[in-house]
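Subject: Lipoprotein

B.,
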Amino acid sequence: MRRWFVAVALVLFGAFATGCEGVLPDNFALPSQFAGGEPRTLDAATAAAQEFVDRRAAGDYAGVWLMYSRQVRDRISQSDYAKLSQTCGSSLEKVPVTATGVRLDGETRALVRVKPMGFSVQLPVVYENGEWFMAPSDDFAADLGKPVDQIIAERRADGRCGDEDLSARLAPPSTSMMPPPPPAEPIPSTGESPSGQCSVDVPGCEGYDECHPVVTGKRDCFPEDESCSKPGNNFPWCRPLASGDQGTPVVLDCSGQPQVKPERIVLTCADNTIAISKIAWVSWSPDGGATGRGTEFRVECVPNCAQGTAHYSPVTITLTGVAPPDFRYTSATIIDEETGTAESWPMR
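Prediction pasted inline below.
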């Protein structure tokens, strides 16, 4: 392609330099990929993405900012972006990767893939003012325009600020399949002690989901200091059962609040070691369940969870088991789109 460009340039130079009658026709035009600036090709877009991930791996955050599109550079300063990246950057971004071109979407957009730790991540690239730039992810775009300290505080609160914030709360995940989902209705106390059910009444919790877990799986009865009747206690299990509005299905977040079509679902609320984010929902109904596609975040606790490595992979999530009166989805199936592996999880 470069030889073709040189040949065209020589023809143009010869025509103008000699002053002869070799005049180009009025309708002559170079192909759009050679109309000025960087070529509008997948190779050029991939090269820009490679430079982006190389700068990020090197910790050159000021240089990374320069690789972003105007959407980013117009709404967060270079110094604020460097502060955000230094504070909330992930070790996964430090892993050297090779960018691979996927496809061009017209002449101004491209999709490039990188595979940190073997997991596929898609990077959108856009063509602006004769150059290829990186477009922000949906999560990052939602933060643009906020003060950087607010972004950092919100990410810390959500467990999305770097590895240190996450690893402080990590615990080894179970290696076995999770148990079946608990019933959507509270289990009435019988005074007996069958496995996984409450064996005593919790004072002050009548009408509340006192037997439901805070984390995936059932838990034993609450000690006295966790009773809902104790002044100041506001545990999730002491809050009224959330329900859908007029039959609209919901899922509960880790604080027990109902959500409809959430962008992010945490499967392990105690430690945030497994979560599905950037979910694009295809369906959401009480009859057919809910289906969406997103990115799974999972921490591999090797050699231990505090020093574990985060992995990302594209997945399909399906929610089922909704029933009145509260219309909560009670079961989730996660399918890894690259390996085909399926896992079942009970929902809160």
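Residues 1-35, 165-226, 235-245 have pLDDT under 50 and may be disordered.

T.
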